[in-house]
Every structure is written in C-alpha cells, then in structure tokens.
Amino acid sequence: MKTPFQPFNLAAHALRHAAALKDKPALEILSDAGAEIWSYGQIEAGVRGIGTGLCALGLQPGARILLRLGNSAAFPLAYLGAIAAGFVPVPTSAALTAAEVTRLADGIGPALILAEAGIALPESPAPLLMGQELTAMQALPPCDYVLGDPERLAYIVFTSGTSGRALAVAHAHRALLARAMMHQGWEGLTLEDRLMHMGAMNWTFTLGTGLLDPWVKGATALVPAPGTPVAEFARLAARHGATILAGAPGVFRQMLRAPLPPLPALRHGLAAGEALAPALREGWQAATGTDLHEALGMTECSTFISGSPARPAPKGCAGFAQAGRRVAVLDAAGNPMPPGESGVLAVHRGDPGLMLGYLGAPDETAARMRGDWFLTGDLVEETAEGALRHLGRADDILNPGGFRVAPQEVEKVMANCPGVSDCAVSEVEVSPGTRVLACAYVGAATELALNDHAARHLARYKQPRIWLRLDHLPRNANQKLNRRALRAALQEAHDDPS
C-alpha cells in the first residue's frame, strides 16, 4: 500500500511567500545602470502567466521543455512556469554549441524549446518559442498550480558521466524540500538577507542557492547582469547591500586580485563547485573580515556536506553532514570506513534531495548504488570530530573552474581535429587552487588549429587552455591510458617549460 502524500508543487513552494511579500523585491539583476527589480508579486504573476501560456499550446502533462535562455529573468520565470503547470523544464547552459545541445535534445525528446536570441539552438523537430512570445505570456491570467505526488518528476538537468556523454538527471518535486536542510546547515539564510550569486542562472548551484533558496525564505536574490566582469562584482555587492555572496572559489579568487571595496553589509560567503583552498579562505577572511563556507555536493543530490556560520568547517575540511542527512564513507566493497581512513562518500537512498535516476540510463543508475547507498564518486576522509576532508574524485571527472567536465567528451571532439592522431585531457594546476584543462596530443596540428577546432565544437569551459605535443601518450601494457601519468606529464611540462 502506497504511503499517502501531501499534494505538492515545487513552484508553489518556491513562491509560498509571494502573496504576503508581493511588493518586496524578490529578484534584482544588477548592472552599472542600476537594478532591474522584480517584486514577489511580479515574479509569481509572470510564472503563473507563463504556465497559462504553455497550457494553451496543448502540451501533454509532463511534457519536456528545453530551456535555451540566458542570465535574464526569463530563465527562472520559464523554469517555474513550466513546473507550476505540470510540465518538465530542462535547463541547459547557454554556452553550449549547437552540436552539443543537439545531442542533449536527442536524449530527452523535448516537446517545446524556449529560447532567447543569440543562444545556439539544437537541430530538433520540436517547436520553438522565442523570448518575445515568452514575455507576452507573463501578462496572461494565472494558471492553477498542478499539485500531486512529491515523488513525481519535476525537472531534468545534465551532468557529465565517466563515459564522456552527458547524463540526464531526473529530479522529483521533493528536491526543493531537501534544500531546507542547507538553509542553516550551510547558507545561514534569513528573511532579511540579500544573497548575490555570481554564476549563470542555468547552473544548478545558482538556480538553487541563488534563486530558489532566497525565495523559499522570503529573502532577495541578487544576480549580476550578463556580461558583468568579475572585477565589478564586489562593487555591485557593496552598492546594492549584499549580505551573502555565493559563487565558485575561482570567482572569489579573482575578486581578491584587486583591492576590495568596503562591504559593510556582508555577513559571509558561500563557495561550491570545486574544492576551496585553505589559502583562499584565509585570504578572504583577511580581506573582508568575513568567512567563506564551503559545500560539497553534486548535480544528483545538490549539497549535503558543508560548513556554516553556526558551525564553520575546520581548516582543510569541507564541513559536516547537514542535519537530517545520512552519509557514509565506504570502501570498494561498500563497507563503512572508520575516521582517519579514506573512502568514497555515499548518501543514503532515502535522502529527499537524491535524484530519481539517470533518465534512460538504468545501468548507470544501478552502478552508483551499493545497497541503500548512492556513491557520489568523491574520495573523503572523516575526522574524529565528524568533519569530512575532500581528497578528490574517485572517477575521471575533471573540475576546472567549478565546471564538471568528462575528459572523454573533450577527447572525442579533439580526436577529430586534422593533424591529431591521438589525444588525452587532464587538469593542470597553474597556481595554488587554480586548475585548467590541458590536452596532450600526438600529431602535427598547430596550437592555432587546436584552439580553433575546440572553439568551434566545445563550450568555452570545455576548451583546453594548455596544449602539449608528445611522441606518444602514456599507456599500460594493455594500451589503456594511464591518466595519472598523463596528469603528471602535463603538470611537469607546465612547471618546467624548458
């Protein structure tokens, strides 16, 4: 017998304060010219108007809608509008090329594509709805929120798999409820906060921490306008009274390269997407008098390990399991490891934030399970105090600049470059805590040709920044690529270019 459920809709929960806070700023898009301000009342009206417009198109319940939208208010309005009306939005990075997004579209079979001008579109038979039409929908009468089982599919996002192909991660409506565990377990978020996230809205980190979490709490979300240089972030934060800053560690690192203006309203910063170097945290503390709190998570389960204002992480550690989370450190056989011993971090399958599974990939989903535990692929070590120290990835996924990149995906593209007979991709640390993609290759291709090929076929964050020509790649007796030796060779070449 199925357990009774309370009817639920993710969009309705995200905007639960809209009626009471209808005149309060919910979203401010910041630029030199000032701020484009959306009140809670305007956000909800736009969301439910879009829901009405989508229903009028005759889409079937649960239809998948591919989002090709940039860092504008249209992104969260379309995302929540689709969910409000019972459809399934599929956010994608605006940086993807036409070829890349075509592969993603082929895997999900969208019934509709919502797009803004200037963003690459897939080759797809799905009808296309452009920005002006989406804007017009916002003025339509409000749709009803479609309520139902919190376990049902709400949205789909993409991540990279070790096979080199993007995996579609299916999330339930309940995923938003799980985020309540990080409001105090990481963010320290309150009704009065003005949280400024310094990433693209389609990134799950920005979408969750930068938009949905502030709205669930009744706070204000701040987002820099598209094209704003990182050097301007601190000035915008000071001018608009940001109380919390959130972004990848690399963003905070770049902000520290220039003198920071006074940030009198700032309470703390939130870092995720890649490991936070202790030196960067210390540098931020010295420059601002505030702390940086790291979180460890993944597309499949958001963040679940973190430091917080109430319980800062010890130096060199990512933090603690958030209250309400069940995590374990397991060996290769799935046995728990004692403190001081490294193993793979695992999350219990009952975690409300855990994905429903990889869409259309049951084998990949099953491969991540060990009994009741979902294997994250992160190598960690628990301290005697219960803090977790991140030791790297158990698989081959790279993480330059906070973006998860499967080296096999880049290798498949670069192998088709004229003049390349073999190639492999890894990371190089160019300065403490800063890593970039690097490609070793065999062949006569010039660096100019390699850069041109990468620019035409890969999103910028997937393009190698360093190239190394070798006579042959490091392989074992079975001709399997030795990725550890590859990374060492690339690092050595960078450190000693002679």
Main structural class: alpha/beta
CATH homologous superfamily identity of the largest domain? ANL, N-terminal domain
The CATH architecture of the largest domain is: 3-Layer(aba) Sandwich
Distance N to C terminus? 70 Å
DSSP helical segment count: 15
Oligomerization state of this entry?
single chain
- Mean pLDDT, to the nearest integer, reads 93
Largest sheet: 9 strands, mixed
- Uncertain residue ranges: none
Q: Rough shape? A: globular
Give the fraction of residues assigned to helices: 25-40%
Order of adjacent strands in the largest pleated sheet: 2-1-10-9-11-12-13-14-15
Cα-based radius of gyration, to the nearest Å: 22 Å
Number of domains: 2
> Would you state the CATH class of the largest domain?
Alpha Beta
CATH topology of the largest domain: Rossmann fold
What's the number of extended β-strand segments? 24
Strand content: 25-35%
Write up this protein.
- The protein has 498 residues and is α/β, with parallel strands linked by helices.
- The chain has 2 domains: 10-390, ANL, N-terminal domain (Rossmann fold); 400-495, 2-Layer Sandwich (GMP Synthetase, Chain A, domain 3).
- It is built from 15 helices and 24 strands.
- The strands form 5 sheets. Strands 2-1-10-9-11-12-13-14-15 form a 9-stranded mixed β-sheet, sandwiched between helices.
- α2 crosses α3 (74-84) and α2 crosses α5 (131-137).
- The radius of gyration is 22 Å and the shape is globular.
- It starts with 9 loop residues before the first helix and ends with a helix.
